[in-house]
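#struct-help
A.M.: can someone run this one for me? Single chain, 194 residues.
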Amino acid sequence: MGITATCTAFGRRRLKALKQIKSRADWEKLWPAPGHAYAFTWGDCWKAVTEFGVSNFPAELGFYLDILGMKVNAMWDGHAMIMTPDGEFAFTIYAAKRTAAELNLQFMLGNIAVAAVALKRRGVRFAQELKAEWGDQHPMRTCKLRTPSGMIITLWGMVEVGKKAAKKAAKKAAKKVKKVAAKPKRKPVVRSRR
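D.P.: on it. Structure tokens below:
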């Protein structure tokens, strides 16, 4: 049996189990154990990276670093490995003729309401405004923003629900947004390679 057939059999076994699972107890009982043990250990510099091409590399670089406040872990020949400031998440962009339209980055935030207001004030284009993902009484919210090359980034986060919570969140967001939405205090430094 080849690798494709083996993987298909593993995948079908999981899909069959998923149809029978109705509770956490079912999950524990019915979800199959892995076919093999995890074979890797993480490196020191970063853990895992998704790489995708963008049609406007300079604009994307400015968007992630100067608008979203991320940092560069490494840069080389039209590539940039970008990380969150805490180093928990990384991805690489590279200069390409077209932006990879199938890719959608997603981030879970602890301050989604504040972040959405701040990003709007920074001029970020939204494909979807902040909305209740599963109804107004559920605390999960999402919004979708568009990068300069047209890629979608989905932001997820929890908020307090109810009338009092909505008023409280709006006041809190308005106060905090001034700090978060501040424009950069320094201009970008341009260095040439020789």
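A.M.: thanks! The helical segments are 3-20, 24-30, 57-67, 112-121, 163-180.
D.P.: also worth noting: The chain has a mean pLDDT of 83.
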